[in-house]
Amino acid sequence: MAERESENHGQLTLEQNSKPLDANSYATKKTIAQGMLDIALLTANASQLKYVLQIGHQHEFYTLMLWLISVSIVLQVVSCTLALVLMTLNINKPERQHVASVLNHVVVGFVLVAMVADVIKMSFGLDPGPVQKRSADENQ
Fold first, then answer.
1. 52 touches 59 (CB < 8 A)
2. What is the domain count for the chain?
3. What is the pLDDT of residues 19-33, one digit of tens each?
4. Dist CA 117 CA 71 (whole Å)
5. With helix as H, strand as E and coil as C, how does 52-92 read?
6. Domain residues for 58?
7. Residue 37: is its pLDDT beyond 60?
8. Is residue 47 part of a domain?
């Protein structure tokens, strides 16, 4: 973007040929990018859920992991749905700005809680570890 100093008190202005920033377009692109990241995280959670269900009660923290993965998936689906609704709002209209702001805060809150659930989930790990080794030792 070409910028130049105007003669009015040294302020920077954009040249006349530049397009102004469209806040609605920016918000839409940001929401789409966030949605793609949510899809990647949802895919990872689905894979982890499949793994935990396959291992079953051999996993030391089976119930906790199942609960955390389920909460994370539900929150991700809800936040993605709200993000899709948010994407349809035209924030250039003043009457829509408050609704969009509230919805954005709700989505951020859901994403934050899902992230906390994911951090807790990963701190317990998905590797059943010693449980499988103990079972293998008992079979010998």
1. yes
2. 1
3. 777 777 777 787 788
4. 7
5. HHHHHHHCCCHHHHHHHHHHHHHHHHHHHHHHHHHHHCCCC
6. 22-128
7. yes
8. yes
